[in-house]
Each structure stands twice: as C-alpha cells, then as structure tokens.
Amino acid sequence: MKFFVDTADIDDIRELNDLGMVDGVTTNPSLIMKSGRDIKEVTAEICALIAGPVSAETVALDAEGMIAEGRELAKIAENIAIKVPLTWDGLKACKVLSGEGRMVNVTLCFSANQALLAAKAGATFISPFIGRLDDLNIDGMELIADIRAIYDNYDFPTEILAASIRTANHMKDAALIGADVATAPPAVIKAMASHVLTDKGLDQFMADWAKTGQKIL
Ligand code: G3P
User: Fold this and answer.
1) How far is the CA of 165 from the centre of ligand 1 (A)?
2) pLDDT tens across 157-190, in order?
3) Distance between CA atoms of 64 and 45, rounded to whole angstroms?
4) Sequence-ordered alpha helix ranges (H) in 75-195
5) 217 falls within a domain
C-alpha cells in the first residue's frame, strides 16, 4: 500500500519523506487554510520535494470552472493530481481532465456507486472518506471493501485512495482490504510505530542494562 501524507505542512512532509514513508501528498482547501500559505506557493514546494502525485483541489462548483482551475493547478508541476469533488460536475471535469492525460483524484466519495461513476469517468484516484462515515456510525472500511470488490470485478485501473484516515488501525484495515493508497495525517503515520509492549520492553532492557554498568561507546 502506498502512503500519501494528508497535509500541507512542509516540515512534516520532509521528516516523513526522509524516512521513505511518502509516496505522495494530498491537500485540500482546509489543509491549505491550516498551513496559512498561498496554495500555488506551498504546492510548488511540496512538488519539488516529493516525486509522487501531489493532489491540489479545485474550488469551483461547476465543471467549466473546475476544468479551468485544474489546468491552472497542473501548471505548478508535472506531478500534480487535480482533485475534484464527487458531484455530477466533478465527474464531467474528471472526464475532460483525465482525457487530457492529467492525473485526477475524485474526492468526497461516500458510496460504492459514486466510486463506480468516478472509475467510468477515468479517475486516477478515488478518495473514499473512512473517518467521516465512522463519525456517523457507518462502517467506513466496509466502503473500501465494496469498492475493492467492484473495481476488481471489472479491472478498473482507478486506484483506491483511502482518505479521512484517523487511526493507525484504519491504516492496517485499509492495507488488509487492499486499498492501493492510504492518505493519513503525519501523526497517524507516526502512531503506527507505537506499541505499549515496545515501550514496556524497552524500559525493562534499559533497567537491566543499567545494572550491568557497561557502556557500548
Ligand atoms: O483526505 C481527506 C481528508 O483530509 C479528510 O480527513 O479527517 O478531515 O475527515 P478528515
């Protein structure tokens, strides 16, 4: 499973990238707002740092506007994936932009039928939002499994990009189901390294080592 980082924070992206944990980056208007940066400026910086796809989201609500904004965002760098919402207009924009050979990430997906339409419209990535479904007591992971089954039934090349990932368990479950990509906040990726028994075991080793009075260096 590829790891995308769901942030526009350059320092966080750099730290994870240095560890080889970043196959791509996803941003959205909320993350751009949180960064306090200019969208084109910060996206260009991210694209220079990361070789993989960097999603930049359009904000127009009509297809024509999305297409124009998508073309503008794509000028930032070769690795831009244009993000459009899963609306009827978003699907129209997806069809046109993907037909021009651009990467398109169709976002705000909450049903298998929406994912099926995005694949038909030529999406490079479909972004089903797990956490926001879980928030409503609807099993977000079931949606990932449904989309996996449908895409596999018909060999759709659209990649399942599990989004709205909130926990390390979400990462594990998405990987078990076979999501192609998961995009997660840096804190969730770091949390995957934590285990209470690792901490406990390390405490014990340190206590015993102190008793030996030895040094390695
Ligand atoms: O990739 C979409 C993601 O940013 C949404 O996450 O936590 O705001 O639902 P969240």
Assistant:
1) 7
2) 999 999 999 999 999 999 999 999 999 999 999 9
3) 27
4) 88-99, 112-120, 130-134, 140-154, 168-177, 186-191
5) no
pTM of the predicted model as reported, rounded to 2 decimal places: 0.96
DSSP code, position 62: S
Contact 47, 54 (CB under 8 A): yes
Residue 19 lies in a domain: yes
| 60 closest CA partner among 79, 83, 31, 42 | 83
Atom of ligand 1 nearest to the CA of 28: 4
User: Which structural domain, as residue segments, surrounds residue 136?
Assistant: 2-212
Name residues contacting ligand 1 (CB within 6 A): 6, 26, 28, 127, 129, 131-132, 163-164, 166, 183
CATH number, domain with residue 195: 3.20.20.70
Please name the residue whose Cα sits nearest to atom 5 of ligand 1: 164
Q: How far apart are the C-alpha atoms of 96 and 19, rounded to whole Å?
A: 36
In this structure, is the dihedral angle defined by the CA atoms of residues 84, 85, 88 and 89, taken in order, positive or negative? negative
Catalytic annotation, pick one of 2, 40, 75, 83: 83
